[in-house]
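::Amino acid chain::
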Amino acid sequence: MSNCANKTAEFLLQIKAIKLQPATPFTWASGWKSPIYCDNRKTLSFPEVRSYIRDSFAALVNELYPQAEVIAGVATGAIAHGALAADKLGLPFIYVRSGAKEHGLGNQIEGYFEPGQKVVVIEDLISTGGSSLSAVRALREAGCEVLGMVAVFTYEFEKASDAFAAENCTLHTLSNYSVLVDTAVKTGYIGQTEVETLRKWRIDPSVWGTKQ
């Protein structure tokens, strides 16, 4: 998967799905200051990248979870990626909302599934892991057997690793923050002097902006 991690990182930088700006940080919805911003929805606009992610997801599921019976995407960012991967795999697809609808049938999980089915969850981005693991809990509460989760990219926060371990959910990603930083240096996207700033941010992102 090392080749996949490098190639995915190259694609994300090339199409500007990921932007690195250590000198002029972004502000996340959480209020965190960040030298990086990731919007993997942009990958859907580039056929070569979209297909690569689809095929990589399918290969990963086949390798790790050959017993998978259903693919579940996490709304909204991973709905398209999950549907594409499910189509490639020839498996049913469902998706999980952040909460139950307040009208109609009140569903949180959309699509057809049966309790006891083995499910692989697809996500586009892992930050702290909160919303992703909320989907895992919803599937388990509905009677599904969650085999694990696969995602496009992770920031590799310790908080997320701890959360996945506590939830007893295995996570695999196509690429990650460490590979991204190395790739950005090799391709000239950033200079070596900016690497330390990027690595310090990942260690303690919640207070990083206050230390600048």
